[in-house]
């Protein structure tokens, strides 16, 4: 039976009709050791208008349901009708969720390393209804109390710390104190025979959990994770004028989980983030960003929650902005802005120039539509816009406004008006023009520099008319031998298409947005273009070089530069860059440009150029592990591979990369793959072995990898890695059939929820053996046959690939 998606007008009507007092949820996990059944009894107490009618959401199989002691009819389309309501009501619904392998909301994972079973829930945006009966909308917040019966060997973790644990027949019962008022997507229950590490830091009880086969990785990284967690809690508590209000703060690393989720007091992660090798500096940067992003949600999303999904950006954009703000100010990762410039911000610039562009805030008619805006506009563009807002009003003023916002609205729901009102009161500025321009208008501005009779002029062209109101830095750089010295900088408040820039001396290069204070693409003048592509390594700071590389990449994606020019610019920067959190993504972008954006006739030569840059990094001791991986990914024959094997020694991670490149060159050493898999203690080493086979130009290997993804036998957290091995350059003939097979799969990619829909749609999208006509056809098929989340993900990914196709033709 189809399940209905909640419409906004239904949510408004239901919120006006009732108020939820509490959820008491009893869960039985004892059947999950040997079977799939997740059983729950949800007791919901709520007040309502006397005699009114509504419905409760429930997509699990209903075993019994009563309202004020009266049996209820069966659920229909994921809803149970509630009629003749009293002023005070008690709803009791017993359910079972039997599809805990590929279903929504609840997942049972079996560790291939030791066959232990782990259970987790994840509910954003409206998947709590697949686990138990609830009023599944963000503005019906209520305390949640959990009582969980689990096998005796299992540990159960939920939002509240310090559970009472008692032995019962068949296992143990874990009783958790009620949470503060939470939206239905914030509660969580995870369980299994976890390994656990705990620390008390600054008055907080911090916990880390992972499956037993990852104990060594968890223990290796625990101190760093505790340090980052304590730094984040202190930073946000001070900046928001509200310390995190619960003593316990747990983080659980889970098998077969996609991404990370900000459940109040108990953040859940894909355990692929626990690197099986010693993490590189760039990997720690990513870890830090995710940790602080989910932590920021404790305030922006959990304590204060958007009323409806049209303000999803209030949750996600704010958390994305705040994680970078905190990383730069409170942790060792002071170059986070530069890292973001050569990472997620590039995706946002590209998305905002194509068909996936949309206003940051837009109407969301149904929750299904909400799934479609977890994208590069909502996340990195939204984050950049909030950073611009902080610069626009001033950081101290911004903090005053945010503290007032949290103080006034804690444990409630808000809209954009509430946030803007707090910041207007703090700043004394009318922010309505800023709000309209930045949040309700799609598209990215293009900023440039001109030399005119009236002096230096900053030009600004909006995507649909006037540019956004914004402040932007302009730096002036003058040649000094092989270097470019900064000889001046100013901040310009843009208020139209042309703004005279005053206070800068004569210079050889004027770099617009040199301090990354706004969200806008930039273009140099003719002399500046020559420098950005010819000698960007001369720029004196990591941030300035990152700004330059963002411009280079945007010009590449708009066919204003060739792949060869882009590779030349990135490898030139790598000749001087020592900040590993920037060197690593720049190295990856250089290789991506060579392998995915270049014509096939130029690919091998550009790969060799990237390899030279990687060898320099190895010799310089900068990002050595990433550089060695790049050398493996660009090796051209037995001599290269043999040298790398000697360099790798006992490093299992590098040995996998070497085997994968060997397979890509046409030689799958089955015995070596089997032997390495047996030696590797990683419980997911079978995925590395699958990637080796997937890299080969063998039709049988491609079929194996494709089926692992489409049939969901590979965990969703591995989809990007496997797909990266599958879509390899120079293999167009063997990959050609999968363009049609992708179109055939589109109607099913959303099955299992939002994360599979987003991940599989983007990962499986063909990179080679397609043309512009096929991309257009894919968009048409998706629009006609696919779920909104698939359409959104395909639109964004297809635009990136379409630009690759066009650039290959230059």
How are the elements arranged and paired?
Elements: H1 8-17, E1 18-28, E2 38-48, E3 54-57, E4 61-67, E5 70-71, E6 79-82, E7 88-97, E8 106-110, E9 117-121, E10 144-150, E11 155-158, E12 164-168, E13 171-175, E14 189-192, E15 195-201, E16 204-210, H2 215-239, E17 248-254, E18 260-261, E19 266-270, H3 281-296, E20 305-306, H4 312-330, H5 336-341, H6 344-351, H7 367-370, H8 377-393, H9 395-409, E21 413-414, H10 416-427, H11 432-439, E22 445-452, E23 455-461, E24 470-480, E25 483-494, E26 498-500, E27 509-512, E28 520-523, H12 526-534, H13 542-557, H14 563-574, H15 580-597, H16 600-620, H17 624-634, H18 638-648, H19 652-664, H20 670-679, H21 685-695, H22 699-710, H23 719-726, H24 732-735, H25 738-745, H26 754-764, H27 772-785, H28 788-808
Parallel strand pairs: 1-10, 16-17, 17-19, 20-21, 22-28
Antiparallel strand pairs: 1-2, 2-7, 3-6, 4-5, 4-7, 8-9, 9-14, 10-13, 11-14, 12-13, 15-16, 18-19, 22-23, 23-26, 24-25, 24-27
Task: Quickly list its features.
810 residues, alpha+beta, Immunoglobulin-like, Neutral Protease, domain 2, 5-stranded mixed sheet
Explain this structure to me?
The protein is α+β, with helices and mostly antiparallel strands. Among the domains are: 1-186, tricorn interacting facor f3 domain (Immunoglobulin-like), CATH 2.60.40; 305-439, Neutral Protease, domain 2; 697-810. The protein is 43% helix and 20% strand. The chain has an eight-stranded mixed β-sheet. It has a five-stranded mixed β-sheet with strand order 15-16-17-19-18, with helices on one face. Strands 8-9-14-11 form a four-stranded antiparallel β-sheet, with no helix packed on it. Helix 2 (215-239) links the parallel strand 16 and strand 17. The chain is globular. The protein starts with 7 loop residues before the first helix and ends with a helix.
